[in-house]
C-alpha cells in the first residue's frame, strides 16, 4: 500500500481564507461577556442559596453550640486500665499513655503497646474537654489509687509515654507529680514526635493549627462578636477543618477548584467529626491554641495557664530533680530522616530539649527511628521494640540503683546504731 507523503497531501488542500481580525476581536468580546453573565447568574444562585441556608443555620448553630456545651461540661479526663503486669512483682510500677492532637481516646492505641506490661500496669488516659493539667494529674492519681485498692500494692514508680501533643500534656503532668506527690516517683518520660519550643511545629502545620484555632475562633469571637460559643460547635469544627484542608480542593495557588477533591475532603471530615475517638470541638481548639501558640481568647481555653505554668523549661527543670534517689530519664524519639515528619520540626524540637537538659542537668536520650510522624497504629512492632530495647532497661537500671542506694543507706544506719548502742550504755 502506497501512503502519500504529507507534503503532497497539504499541497492539494485549498488555501485558507484570510482572517478578519475585527470580526475575531468582536467575537472574543461577546464570548467574554457571555462568561461574565454566566458567572453573575451562578453567583446569584449561590448567594440566594447561602442566604436561604443561613436563615435556618442560625437556629441550628445555636442548638449545636448548646449540645456542645452540655457535652463539654460532662467530658473530663479519664483513665482506662489496659494491662496488668506480666510479672506480678511489678505491681508497684505503671505506665501512662496519651495520644496526640485531635484525638479524644487513647485506648485503642494503648492496646497495641503490650511491651509496657513487662514493666508494670498500663493505663490509657483519655482527654477531657480542655488541657487542664490539674485534672489530668488528678485522673492519673485516682487511677493508681483504684488499682492499689485492688492489688493491695502501692504503685510507687511511674513512667509516661506521650505521642505528639500527648507528650506535652504527660510531661507537664509528670513534672507536677514529681514536685508535688511525695508518694510517686517519676522514672521515665517518653515524648514521641512532640513539638517543643517556638519552632517545634513544621511551618505548614503551624499555619493550619493557627488557622484552625485563630481564624475560626479569633475572628468570630474577638472581631465579629457573632459566634459566642463557637468552640463547642461540631459544625464549626468541621468548617475549620475544611478550611485547613483547602489545599486538597483548591489547586494551583487557589486558582482551580477541584469538586471531586472537595467532596472527598468533606466526606472525610464528616466521618472524623462523627467519630467519638476524635477530639471534641472545645478540646481541639484548646489543643490547637497550645500547640500553635496563637493568642486565642475564647471562654474556657486553658492556653494561657498552660503556657505560663508548664513551659518546657519549667518541665525539664522539674524532671531534673532527684526524689527518693530517682532522677527521671527523658526519652525523645524522632524521625531518622527529619524531612519525612511533615507535622513537627523534630530537629528544632530535639535541639531545644537538648539545650534545656544541659541547662538543668537532666537525663536525656534522643533516639532516631525509621518513622515519619509517630503513629502507633502504623508501626506498633517498631514502638514495642523501642520500649523493650531502650525504655524498660533504662527504667529498671534507674529503679535498681535507687533501691540499692536506699538499702545501703539503711544498712549504714543499722551499722551506725549497732556501733553506738554499746557506747550509750
Set down the secondary structure blueprint.
Blueprint: H1 6-12, H2 21-74, E1 78-83, E2 93-98, H3 107-111, E3 121-126, H4 133-151, E4 157-163, H5 165-180, E5 185-192, H6 203-224, H7 234-244, E6 250-251, E7 256-257, H8 259-274, H9 281-292, H10 303-309, H11 312-319, E8 329-335, H12 346-360, E9 363-369, H13 380-424
Parallel strand pairs: 2-3, 2-4, 4-5, 5-8, 8-9
Antiparallel strand pairs: 1-3, 6-7
How would you sum up this structure, described in words?
- This protein has 13 helices and nine strands.
- It has 425 residues and is of the alpha/beta class.
- It has a domain at 78-199 and 309-412: Alpha/Beta hydrolase fold, catalytic domain (Rossmann fold, 3-Layer(aba) Sandwich), CATH 3.40.50.1820.
- The strands form two sheets. A seven-stranded mixed sheet has the order 1-3-2-4-5-8-9, with helices on both faces. It has a two-stranded antiparallel ribbon with strand order 6-7.
- Helix 4 crosses helix 5 (165-180), helix 6 (203-224) crosses helix 7 (234-244) and helix 9 crosses helix 10.
Which class of secondary structure composition applies to the elements?
A: alpha/beta
Total beta strands: 9
> How helix-rich are the residues, as a percent range?
55-70%
Q: Profile the largest sheet.
A: 7 strands, mixed
Strand content is 5-15%
**Shape verdict:** elongated
Query: What's the name of the CATH homologous superfamily of the domain at 78-199 and 309-412?
Result: Alpha/Beta hydrolase fold, catalytic domain
Compressed to H and E, one letter per element, the order equals: HHEEHEHEHEHHEEHHHHEHEH
What is the CATH architecture assignment of the domain at 78-199 and 309-412?
3-Layer(aba) Sandwich
The CATH topology label of the domain at 78-199 and 309-412 is Rossmann fold
Mean pLDDT: 77
Radius of gyration using CA atoms only = 30 Å
Amino acid at each position: 500500500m502506497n501512503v502519500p507523503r504529507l507534503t503532497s497531501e497539504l499541497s492539494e488542500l485549498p488555501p485558507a481564507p484570510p482572517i478578519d481580525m475585527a470580526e475575531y476581536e468582536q467575537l472574543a468580546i461577546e464570548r467574554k461577556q457571555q462568561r461574565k453573565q454566566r458567572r453573575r447568574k451562578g453567583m446569584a444562585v449561590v448567594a440566594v442559596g447561602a442566604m436561604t441556608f443561613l436563615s435556618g443555620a442560625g437556629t441550628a448553630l445555636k442548638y449545636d453550640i448548646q449540645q456542645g456545651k452540655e457535652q463539654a461540661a460532662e467530658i473530663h479526663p479519664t483513665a482506662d486500665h489496659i494491662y496488668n503486669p506480666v510479672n506480678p512483682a511489678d505491681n508497684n510500677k505503671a505506665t501512662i499513655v496519651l495520644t496526640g492532637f485531635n484525638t479524644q481516646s487513647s485506648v485503642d492505641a494503648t492496646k497495641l503497646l503490650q511491651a509496657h506490661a513487662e514493666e508494670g500496669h498500663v493505663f490509657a488516659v483519655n482527654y477531657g474537654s480542655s488541657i487542664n493539667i490539674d485534672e489530668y494529674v488528678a485522673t492519673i492519681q485516682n487511677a493508681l489509687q483504684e488499682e492499689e485498692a485492688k492489688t493491695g500494692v502501692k504503685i510507687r514508680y511511674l513512667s509516661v509515654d506521650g505521642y505528639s501533643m500527648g507528650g506535652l500534656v504527660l510531661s507537664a503532668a509528670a513534672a507536677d507529680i514529681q514536685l508535688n506527690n511525695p508518694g510517686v516517683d517519676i522514672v521515665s518520660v517518653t515524648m514521641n514526635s512532640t513539638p517543643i519550643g517556638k519552632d517545634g511545629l513544621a511551618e505548614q502545620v503551624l499555619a493550619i493549627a493557627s488557622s484552625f484555632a485563630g481564624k475560626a475562633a479569633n475572628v468570630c469571637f474577638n472581631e465579629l462578636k457573632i459566634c459566642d460559643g463557637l468552640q463547642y460547635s461540631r459544625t464549626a469544627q468541621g468548617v475549620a477543618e475544611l478550611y485547613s484542608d483547602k489545599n486538597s480542593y483548591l489547586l494551583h495557588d487557589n486558582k482551580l477548584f477541584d469538586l471531586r477533591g472537595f467532596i472527598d475532603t468533606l466526606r472525610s471530615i464528616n466521618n472524623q467529626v462523627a467519630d467519638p475517638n476524635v477530639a471534641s470541638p472545645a478540646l481541639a481548639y484548646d489543643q490547637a491554641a497550645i500547640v500553635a501558640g496563637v493568642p486565642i481568647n475564647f471562654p474556657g481555653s486553658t492556653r494561657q495557664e498552660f503556657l505560663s505554668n508548664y513551659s518546657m523549661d519549667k518541665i525539664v527543670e522539674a524532671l531534673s530533680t532527684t526524689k527518693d534517689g530517682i532522677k527521671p530519664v527523658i526519652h525523645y524519639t524522632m524521625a531518622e530522616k527529619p524531612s519525612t515528619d511533615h507535622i513537627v520540626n523534630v530537629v528544632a524540637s530535639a535541639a531545644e530539649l537538648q539545650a534545656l537538659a544541659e541547662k538543668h542537668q537532666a537525663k536525656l536520650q534522643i533516639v532516631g527511628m525509621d518513622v515519619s510522624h509517630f503513629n502507633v497504629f502504623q508501626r506498633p512492632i517498631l514502638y514495642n521494640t523501642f520500649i523493650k530495647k531502650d525504655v524498660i532497661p533504662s527504667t529498671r537500671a534507674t529503679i535498681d540503683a535507687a533501691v540499692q542506694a536506699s538499702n545501703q543507706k539503711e544498712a549504714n544506719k543499722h551499722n551506725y546504731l549497732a556501733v553506738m548502742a554499746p557506747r550509750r550504755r
